[in-house]
Design a protein that fits this description.
There is one protein chain. Helix content is about 60%, strand content about 0%. By secondary structure, the chain is mainly alpha-helical. Helix 13 packs across helix 16. It starts with a helix and ends in a 7-residue tail after the last helix.
Length: about 325
């Protein structure tokens, strides 16, 4: 028996009856030979970890644009925190931890530079629209590996596509990541806001902190325990109604105090202008884009979508450098 088959058998014997088994995957977009040592979701996790889009997340904004300090979150550290929260929940519920990890690590691969400011800019200027969850799937299906894509399983792609509030994944593992994403960004964005002095602990609503804790760690622990205890032995992933309401209220508080805070968001207007300007520039000078993107045009992809692909793939640093090289006059030396 192959090592992979032994691991698949272990899943069948140990995991919850509601877990998604590797041997029952709906498969990949393009059929390929199985690995002899890794089940399909572990293989997907590895492919995501080794792809270029994942590495670029380290230089993409989470909430604070170009913060002065070493401890503020980036899109990569956000992704790792989502993964860790999700794995903790999955392990406690005996769900498929490798499927959870693959979805979590891949859920933001298509995110723009400058966080949601970049996403808004491309959605406004591109007639085809832009949503980062759809772009994440496009990244793994088409853009990675010079246009070949990563050829991930249906379950991982479904979880990545449906990780936002407006949709629901088909697997319980995907639902774990969907909640873990919300918990992670509320938790770490509040932690960053406290570090930056935008918030003070005593300003947090007492009707929230008296229930779920007076530190970021206490609040995170409370959310995770609530999900585990309310999902245990059920064919669902859920919070208790009181804690779900508290999370909703906390998210509303963060939008009012942090996500729309003029101090934290003072540079977002500039970032949006930069993104729109780069989009417009490459719509005119499309021949200056890398060959991988030009080949997409040869395959019949829409020009607007391919320009979005390129601009969205940039890191904050590369987008600023690129803008500077194109539009900022340089000193003339004779």
């Amino acid at each position: 028996m192959l090592i992979r088959e032994k691991m698949e058998q272990w899943e069948k014997e140990y995991l919850s009856p509601y877990a998604t088994l590797s041997m029952n995957s709906k498969g990949r977009r393009n059929a390929e030979e199985q690995c002899d040592i890794r089940p399909v979701f572990q293989r997907d996790r590895d492919r995501i970890m080794h792809c270029k889009s994942f590495r670029r997340l380290k230089d993409k904004t989470q909430v604070f644009l170009s913060p002065e300090g070493d401890h503020y979150r980036t899109r990569l550290t956000h992704t790792l925190e989502v993964s860790q929260n999700a794995r903790t929940i999955a392990k406690a519920l005996q769900m498929n931890e490798e499927l959870v990890e693959a979805i979590a690590l891949g859920h933001d691969l298509g995110h723009t530079p400058f966080g949601h400011a970049g996403e808004r800019a491309l959605d406004e200027i591109c007639p085809l629209g832009f949503k980062h969850n759809e772009q994440s799937v496009r990244t793994i299906d088409i853009l990675e590996k010079h246009g070949q894509g990563l050829n991930l399983t249906w379950e991982v792609r479904d979880g990545i596509l449906n990780h936002q509030t407006s949709s629901m994944p088909s697997t319980l593992e995907g639902k774990i990541v969907r909640l873990s994403d919300k918990i992670a960004y509320i938790h770490h964005d509040m932690d960053d806001a406290l570090r930056a002095g935008i918030l003070k602990e005593e300003e947090l609503p007492s009707e929230i902190t008296d229930v779920i804790g007076h530190t970021c760690n206490q609040r995170l622990d409370h959310f995770i325990h609530d999900i585990v205890m309310n999902s245990l032995g059920t064919n669902d992933i859920r919070m208790s109604e009181p804690i779900a309401k508290i999370m909703k209220d906390l998210r509303k508080f963060m939008f009012e105090q942090v996500y729309t805070n003029p101090i934290a968001k003072s540079e977002e207007g500039k970032a949006e202008t930069l993104m729109k300007t780069l989009y417009e520039y490459y719509m005119v000078h499309i021949d200056l884009m890398p060959q991988d993107y030009l080949r997409l045009l040869e395959r019949g992809e829409a020009k607007e979508r391919v320009v979005c692909d390129y601009v969205a793939s940039m890191t904050d640093r590369f987008a600023i450098s690129n803008y500077d090289n194109i539009f900022v006059p340089k000193s003339w030396i004779w």
